Amino acid sequence: MSRDVLSENIIILKNVSVYYNSHTALDDINLSFRKGEFTVILGPNGSGKTTLLKVLCGLCKFQKGSVKVLGQTPSSYNFLLRRKIAHVAQVESIDPKLPMTVRESVAIGRGGICGLGKPLTKVDWDLIDSTIKWVGISHLANKPIGQISGGERQKASIARALVQQAPILLLDEPTASIDPNAQKDILDLLEHRMDLHRFTTLYVTHELAMIPNRCDRVVMLQNGKIWADGKPEELLVEDKLKDLYGGNGFCCSGRFGFHHSHH
Amino acid sequence: MHYILGIPEYLWLPILAGLFSGIACSIVGVFIVTMHLSFLGICIAHSAFTGALFGLWVGWNPLAGAILFSLIASAIVGPLADRGELSPDTSTGIVFSTMLGLAFLFLGLIPGSKASALSLFWGNILTVTQIDIYILAGIAIFLLLLFTVFYKEIHAVLCHRQIAMYVGIPTALIFYLLLIATGLTIAVSLQTVGGLLIYSLLLNPSASAHQLTYRFKTMLILSVLFGVISCWGGIALSYKYNLPTGATIILISSVIFILSAIFSPKRQIKGTKNV
């Protein structure tokens, strides 16, 4: 989808600043994201990427500025807004003895949207089962969630985000800490999904090889400020990336498949 | 002696107390065990005990003091742990030690004989009254309703609290409801098994159930079953062999845990799986 046909802004941040004690996590950020736009957010550790996503979910307070997501101001009490924002974080270690199956873990994605105290319906479970099948883990559906691999758990996380049927998808380093094959599977799933339906997606990553070919925009953050904001073909180039990450230890070989395949 | 269904009439109130205590403590125990909040359970148990001593000192019903103090402890520990300024263990430890200090202070301040205060240490299920049964039944029914109506939310919060928050489940509301339910359960069960022993009845049945299944629903049912078996078994054995009832209840729940750990299908899994 070209940027020109993308419609109205559904996420708007104006002069947003976030402070953790004396540390400035976001510094006077002005950004807006259009409906259906796929944006990759890059930046070194501590540049404010995850903070930006948390602000949009209402799970991080901003001290200055204004934020509108789907016309609402996010806050920790705004559960209704969070139900319209799907979120996939990086895979974490969990208790292998946790009393929860993969299917139940995916079902949490419907937990908010179907309402407090209301059980999931057959329609919900059908959606959950078909999505589990779509991400390719239906053979694991009844296994304990703590006993599947990191890559499989990340597929379950994507299934959970998809069953939420939210218009906004936030991906916070979803391919971190999993092996290259699983990373490729996750990327394929994301690209395939983008073919079927365009969410407004903000994708935080450090792995340049994991950037989908069809992304519309790249935002680069450094020290809590917007360092660059533009088209992928302009920003995902070696010089820019070396400047963004400081150059030291930055390895560029084999990482720019995106840039070439985009054209 | 008058018998009903072959059981001495005076044992019926303890049997009902065992049923409702077993249900309530086991359900709350699932919350404590699944969220790894064992220390919080100890803290609230001791707070309830302190509150009961406070009640005796100021001339209240000990139950009122127990409820008040366990709710105060829940209200302090939960937000402190949630805000992340202190680790949950540190904040719980501070409240726990403060409550223990207050317990000894109130024990010293209670005028006259300390017998009624000391009986709160080990409780006595054989002396429960009809009013106690109504209260215990009330809390057991409240917990059953809570876990039935909010089953999907509670399951999500207990197993994936962070994810539950992201999908728009009001996790703080669910967590604090469970904390309050824990405080109330401990307070009203104080007389049944005592301030020192109640912690075992909270932990052992649910920890046993946790050993045996990966299904949350099955864990809840097994936990309740083990809790009630412990209480009824304890009453039966103490009646037959003239043993202290509270201690017998706890020892039976410990035996159930040992057997569950031995036969657990989860035994081969050690520690958290690396990813």
Mean pLDDT of chain B: 89
β content of chain A, as a range? 15-25%
Number of helices of chain A: 9
Number of strands of chain A: 9
**Structural class, judged by helices and strands of chain A?**
alpha/beta
Helix content of chain B: over 70%
Strand order, sheet with most strands of chain B? 1-2
How many whole angstroms does the radius of gyration of chain B measure? 19 Å
Note down, in words, how this protein is organized:
The complex is a heterodimer of chains A (263) and B (275). Chain A is α/β, with parallel strands linked by helices. In chain A, 32% of the residues lie in helices and 23% in strands. Chain A has a six-stranded mixed β-sheet, with helices on both faces. In chain A, strands 2-1-4 form a three-stranded antiparallel β-sheet, with helices on one face. In chain A, β8 and β9 form a beta hairpin. Chain A is globular and about 45 Å long. The N terminus and C terminus of chain A are likely disordered. In chain B, α3 runs antiparallel to α9. Chain B has 275 residues and is mainly α. Chain B contains twelve helices and two strands, in the order ββαααααααααααα. Helix content of chain B is 77%, strand content 1%. In chain B, strands 1-2 form a two-stranded antiparallel ribbon. The radius of gyration of chain B is 19 Å and the shape is globular. The mean pLDDT of chain B is 89. In chain B, a hairpin with a 2-residue loop joins β1 and β2. The chains are: A alpha/beta (263), B mainly alpha (275). At the A-B interface, α2, β5, α3 and α5 of A face α7, α8 and α11 of B.
